[in-house]
Amino acid sequence: MNRKIILPLTFLLLTQIIFQINSGNCFSENTNLNYYKQTSLFFLDTNLNNSLTISDAVNFVKEISGGEVISAERRFKKSDPVWEVILISEEGSFVKMEISFYERTVYMMNSDEGPFTYDIKPATDLISLSEAIKIADSRSSQKVLKWKFLKVKDKWEYNFWLFTKSGKAQLRLDAETGETITGKKTKKNK
Predict the structure, then answer these.
(1) Residue numbers of the domain that contains 81
(2) Are residues 91 and 149 in the same domain?
(3) Which of 105, 95, 103, 106 lies closest to 68, judged by CA?
(4) Least packed by Cβ within 10 Å: which of 41, 69, 143, 178?
(5) Is-contact 98 84, C-beta < 8 A?
(6) What does the DSSP 8-state code read for residue 65?
């Protein structure tokens, strides 16, 4: 072929390759990047719906508990966003909390290690953690190994795991009244 034809075609081809590289159309990673840019529209940083910011969630946790917040990030509980906040008590125990993304409400709290000498009051109409632990201690001679605060159906409750001779047993307390919650067992007909 003639050099007069090859040089302009080569230049045109190189120009097209450079254009594709700069526009991001030739790499599969850029396809994923474009996908995440599109889905990030669902997570706008603007606070148009008056949801809790990360600092609102941290300040709320500081108000209802003692200790120092060491981690806070947005997570999903089912399809709802929550703020997952982890704090360390003055005694060195870690507590994980899930705070509603839309209001100052605790969805869940738990701790797998003691000592449990700190206090947390999840809401004004509920008993505090220290009160619930006192009730659990009075109903069992065993020490609490771990605890959890959560909503079961329409009721808030504290769950405590105690060490007994037969292994670990769970004690459930109503977070409003402090009464023991017992599971009803039904016999299956054979």
Answers:
(1) 35-112
(2) no
(3) 95
(4) 41
(5) yes
(6) B
